[in-house]
């Protein structure tokens, strides 16, 4: 058996088979599973990987060939774009199309790609359909090879975009921003980097993706292991052999441990199991595993798509998958099937004289039924009943990122693979020889941390630099308890500084769609400012306070759902009062309604809510 085998008898027919009447046993079981995992420390449990100093070895770039060789630069630019992932690239391309070409794009990585530059672990693949995930498909004419693209293909597409839109000439890689200061006299930002560069920028675009800084589990002894270890986003192929497609021949004869079974873990684990002498998987919470439903692209279908299809397909997907305001999307995958199942349950509840509670119950019941189906799938796939039990998920579907795989669950049928459930008995410590849990010490040669990325720290902590704004105001202070903006883009006392990413923005399943919408909005504001001779713009106090109120209101609506969730990134590890996690405090739902709100704002063309200095 290899990780390319398919083990789903009929993956296309997955539908819940059982109807649930009594919700109480499910509620009780889900809460008990949550309680097992709640910690006092919440998101503080994780160990930060410093740029320099503690654990910085887990941050080193294994993909770059050598260090930056460019001498320190001093330059005046119209827009400085910090981050060369999808966000930075989409922003830069939008600016160039608008005729603003005096821009510089900075990144710590050695190339474009962002998430897809860093995440090259074996099995890396996007869980969102490629036809709606890849940006600018209609412009580039590129045809994704499969419905669900490999990380390698997406990374290469980023490079293609950079070439097609001449971004390489505007880029400066292996360079990290160390600080930024507003100069009132020139109405410009002075930006410093670790390469000794000094940029004077009229506008700055910052990006805060969700998967920027790797973090390590809060387990005593991390760093004391005498064998080899790395984080999945800094995969050491020199040690494992192979590449993002697998073929980890360097692991022959090696005893391997992996901690973490999130979206990354479930993709990498089958490849580790294919090659390691033994593999121990440390799981605190299982991930929902839906069928992959991958297929090669039908090129004649792709080429027959009418003009404008890309945006339309994206909107239809997000309106159905996340917003639940439209019942249809041509993307027939796990996201949409689950949404449609819930929408059908809601429609059924709408018969007669329903109350709001009837609709809420219908949502909850259909979620339990969906998970019963996935639990049945585990039983049907995993031969050992005790192992199967550990792999079953007991939390509502959108509490955590769902996973999609046809090869993950069968991996646990291999004799060389052991699953260690640490939900009730946490890992005690990392030792010199391996990993100690209870009365067992697992001696291994390699420990892989599939433990995700920082999510509970403040915006400036994650960015790794502070910003000194107007009147001596520091961003670290202003955002210490969560970010405060107008529409997620601009913040008072920090003129001309844009925040893109998971700020106080719309929530959608397809992050690439959000990025396009945000970049479009920022480009509109910058273009207007440059055309109208505006020196500086920032939100008025009232407008910013108004948006914060909207954010608080939308957060309250989600509170009950996320309080009942097992801890994770989406509920700030159960600490819902901590606003620093933007997913808890600041996402607007329905996401597509947020995009309409921005479009309306642009249509008025009056920069409503912004204070402008000409
Ligand atoms: P993640 O979702 O944060 O998962 C981290 C894993 O580490 C979880 O299983 C977590 O368990 C476990 N963990 C943390 N501390 C632990 C400890 N002390 N002991 C045992 N286990 C511990 O990180 P990820 O898998 O890298 O995914 C990050 C995000 O990237 C995802 O949310 C997803 O959006 C994105 N992603 C997308 C794709 C895709 O599109 N294909 C692929 C990969 C990643 P708990 O759940 O109990 O905390």
TrEMBL record:
InterPro entries: FAD-binding_Monooxygenases, FAD/NAD-bd_sf, Flavin_mOase-like. It comes from Rhodococcus sovatensis. Pfam families: FMO-like, NAD_binding_8. PANTHER family: FAD-BINDING MONOOXYGENASE AUSB-RELATED (PTHR43098:SF2), L-ORNITHINE N(5)-MONOOXYGENASE-RELATED (PTHR43098). Its cofactor is FAD. It is an enzyme of class 1 (oxidoreductase). This is NAD(P)/FAD-dependent oxidoreductase. GO terms for molecular function: oxidoreductase activity. The keyword Flavoprotein applies. Keywords: FAD, Flavoprotein, NADP, Oxidoreductase. The lineage of its organism: Bacteria, Bacillati, Actinomycetota, Actinomycetes, Mycobacteriales. Its EC number is 1.14.13.-. Belongs to the FAD-binding monooxygenase family.
